[in-house]
Design goal:
It holds the Pfam family ABC_tran. By secondary structure, the chain is of the alpha/beta class. The protein has one domain: Rossmann fold (3-Layer(aba) Sandwich), CATH 3.40.50.300. It is 37% helix and 25% strand. A six-stranded mixed β-sheet has the order 6-7-8-3-9-10, with helices on both faces. A hairpin with a 2-residue loop joins β9 and β10. α6 runs parallel beside α7.
Length: 240
Amino acid sequence: MSEPILSLEAVETDIAQYHILKGVSLSVPRGQVTMLLGRNGVGKTTTMRTIMGLLRNKAGQIRFDGAEISGELASSRCRAGIGFVPEDMGIFSALTVEENMILAAVSGAPDRARLDWLFTVFPPLKTFWKAPAGTLSGGQKQMLSIARAMIEDRKLYLIDEPTKGLAPAIVSTMVGALRELKRQGASILMVEQNFAVARALGDHCVVMDDGRATWSGAMADLATDHALQERLMGLSMEAG
């Protein structure tokens, strides 16, 4: 087994007076899609923001690509090869789609071949290339948010609920794009409440509860064990 691209060991994070992460330990295998699952409010988004450096862990270790990064700024983690798609999309509404994409290409001007590929998986981006991002529909804004992370070949992609609130047709487009990214061998950690999407994309799975990672294993094992789903999350994936 190769070293995981990302590992957390006993990570604790507070937000104001609230103790959110209470010793999270997990690993993300290199070249696989790891789904981060659990009920609402158990710490999944806080985990993602802590990995990205938008929140600072007060204890524990975060190792990325063999290096300890707990003390690094978010900008340094980005330059080191982590792409982040936040739950709130994080696009610049007053800037055009083109300007949003240029800003996301931290290594320089966007690669033309990479951009052409993104236009094939997210056609509306080409259509609205010169339009202000704020004029896009919700689904189109989510496409832009994901495309910003994908504009360069990242070592790790952190993607927080990419299909939340989207129509089925847009969800299908998202899944197709992420499946293509997976086919290229990308390492992905993804929060997703849509279990059908989790089943379709996930190789590995980590389940969280009350600020801790309580189970990890193959996504296929969790997807086929309804009793385990009920025990870990209080619901069955059959509902997804």
